[in-house]
Amino acid sequence: MSTNSRISTDIQSIRTRQAGAGQSVFAALALTASLCIGCGAGQALAAGDAAAGAAAWTAEHPQPGSAPARSCSSCHGTDLTRTGRHAKTGKRIEPLAPSVNPARLSDDKKVAKWLYRNCRWTLGRECTDSEKADFLAFINAQ
């Protein structure tokens, strides 16, 4: 099973445990304070580290050629309660903070898709499971 499929399955499992509470996936993650990283049924959950996610959020990554270095904050900014703007296209990016935009990342398939795309665009590679958990913990804390 791919990492993104595992995350999607894990988020769905968390969502099921929170059924009836009317909460977004990030609210459910906040309540459980963990995300299953590369595990199967009955295995331990690994908590994401919001502080590590915050540090990684602003870390700059060199790009090939003459392109400027990129970080998550290059497009999303450091205040996730505010609107961002894509560094290359200038396209508006809605706030990521669940505190101001609870529906923004409530679809587990979109969460997996955007983590995959944005990690590849920013870091030049797919994020590790641990990095994904840290980013989700950081975003959830906003």
Q: Distance between the terminal alpha carbons, to the nearest Å?
A: 30 Å
Number of helices: 6
Strand segment tally: 2
Q: Describe the largest sheet.
A: 2 strands, antiparallel
- Gross morphology is globular
* Helix content bin: 40-55%
CATH topology: Cytochrome Bc1 Complex, Chain D, domain 2
| Rg (C-alpha, Å) | 15 Å
Structure classification: mainly alpha
Low-pLDDT windows of residues: 17-21, 26-45
The helix/strand series, from N terminus to C terminus, equals: HHHHEEHH
Strand order of the largest sheet: 1-2
β-sheet strand percentage: under 5%
CATH hierarchy class name:
Mainly Alpha
CATH superfamily: Cytochrome c-like domain
**Count of structural domains:** 1
Key attributes of the depicted protein:
Cytochrome Bc1 Complex, Chain D, domain 2, 142 residues, 2 strands
Written description of the protein model:
- By secondary structure, the protein is mainly α.
- It has one domain (3-140): Cytochrome Bc1 Complex, Chain D, domain 2 (Orthogonal Bundle).
- It has six helices and two strands.
- A two-stranded antiparallel sheet has the order 1-2.
- The chain starts with a helix and ends with a helix.
- Residues 17-21 and 26-45 have low confidence and may be disordered.
